[in-house]
Amino acid sequence: MNPLRVVLGTPSAVYLLASSLVGRLPSAMAALAIVQLVRLQGGDYALAGTMTAVYIVAGAVGQPVLGRVVDRTGQTLVLVVAAVVSSLGFVVVAACAAEAPVLALLGAILAGLFTPPLEPSLRSLWPRIVPEGRPLKAAFSLDAGAQELVFIVGPLLTVLGISAFGATGNVLFAAALGLAGTVAFALNRVSRTAGASENPDAPRLSPVRSARFRRLVAFTFGVGIPVGVLTISVTVFGERHGIEGFAGWALAANAFGALVGATTLALRPLRRAPQRLLARCGLLLAAFYLPLALAELPPAVWLALAVVAGFMLPPTLAQIFESVAHVADRGSLTEANAWVVSAMSVGVAAGTLGGGLVAGLEFAVPVMVLGGSVATALLALLVLPARMTTPSQQPAPVGSAAG
After folding, report:
1. Do domains 1-197 and 206-390 have the same CATH topology?
2. Are 369 and 233 in contact (CB under 8 A)?
3. What's the CATH superfamily of 1-197?
4. Would you give the DSSP letter of residue 361?
5. CB 226 within 8 Å of CB 285
6. What is the pLDDT of residues 319-349, one digit of tens each?
7. Contact status, residue 74 vs residue 65, Cβ threshold 8 Å
8. Which of 20, 47, 251, 264 has the most CB atoms around it within 10 Å of its CB?
9. Whole-prediction pTM value?
């Protein structure tokens, strides 16, 4: 049977994926929602940028902490409490954004710090409910592709939310979506029973004690860099070619390429162990972004290259997600996946910051794209097969490398 059909036919799989996607929507809506809120309430871009950055950084800090608590106590209570507190943080942001910016910043910290760890929670459940082998690979590929949908739908919902409820009501709308999705996820039987009854007294070592896991986290950081760079490079390209709205089209084209990559991998999962594919996927990801350095190409051609650039992101993320289950202890899977989520977020932020610093240069687009690709390629060297596989995993049987 097709491995993707096996995943879709697994009890609770579609429900858990769908509810987690709804619960994750505030993360995809927050940046644009906060900027629009601050500006429409009379605040300046400095405040909007600071508040958005604070939210993102707080989320990167909070995910591993909440993930560790989930591994010790189970998912349900942690997810629901985190969702309630995060939603209250968004309420404070909505009420105080321009008039009481200090309170609004505190609200942004709460909203980010207590972002429900849905991504790591779901990824710790896949090995429990989906058979090993190609079905599990398909599950992680499906997860990676669905993540792209969140970041396509999120900005669109923000625009619709502002139109329907105003800038203040839109932030509350985002909070309500996150709360509803998280509660729905947490009430599922699979989520309720995960972790709580599995060796509660057994010692749980933090995954960061493992050198292989630390290499994986560093590699994930590198994967995020070109994604962050792209946000700035498409803006600069559009401005220099005088095309209004080009950035939105380019990001959508890149996301479409990612969806194609995710769908391809879900239908035809790779057969080799993920640790043996990490470096190869990372190097291909860097290579696929490189043509975007050709900033003098016609805009239509550059858009096509943006589609190509997105193709390798989900396959690379899928190898990362699956590798976590191999290099981290079973009792710390949620925390391990949370570290990966945070590393990706910080990598995207670093790429955005780096791109912004060189955006004023004459050859800004080539410089930022080349810099991002080189960083990704160098960090891919950390996860070469010899560094990530145990003696029992080497070598792979002849004929198992088929895709």
Report:
1. yes
2. yes
3. MFS general substrate transporter like domains (1.20.1250.20)
4. S
5. yes
6. 998 899 888 887 888 899 999 989 998 898 8
7. no
8. 20
9. 0.80
**301 φ/ψ angles, rounded to the nearest 5 degrees:** -70, -40
3-state secondary structure of 273: coil
**Residues 52-96 pLDDT 10s:** 888 988 998 999 999 999 988 999 999 999 999 999 999 999 999
At 82, which amino acid appears?
A: A
Give the residue-averaged pLDDT of 32-50: 79
The amino acid sitting at 353 is L
Task: Give 302-327 pLDDT, tens digit per residue.
Answer: 999 999 999 999 999 989 988 998 88
Q: Calculate the alpha carbon distances from 357 to 155, 228, 229, 240, 354 in Å.
A: 25, 13, 11, 17, 5
Does residue 234 contact residue 246 with C-beta atoms inside 8 Å? yes
Contact between 63 and 123 under an 8 Å Cβ cutoff? The reply is no
Neighbours of 286 (CB within 10 A): 25
Looking at the domain 206-390, which fold is it? Answer: Growth Hormone; Chain: A; (1.20.1250)
Q: Kindly give the residue spans of alpha helices, DSSP state H, lying in 294-380.
A: 299-310, 313-327, 333-358, 364-380
Spatial distance between the Cα atoms of 385 and 366, rounded to a whole number of angstroms: 31
What does the alpha-carbon distance between residue 127 and residue 150 come to, in Å, rounded to a whole number?
22
Domain ranges of the chain: 1-197, 206-390
pLDDT above 90 (res 299): yes
Q: How many angstroms separate the CA atoms of 71 and 317, rounded? A: 22
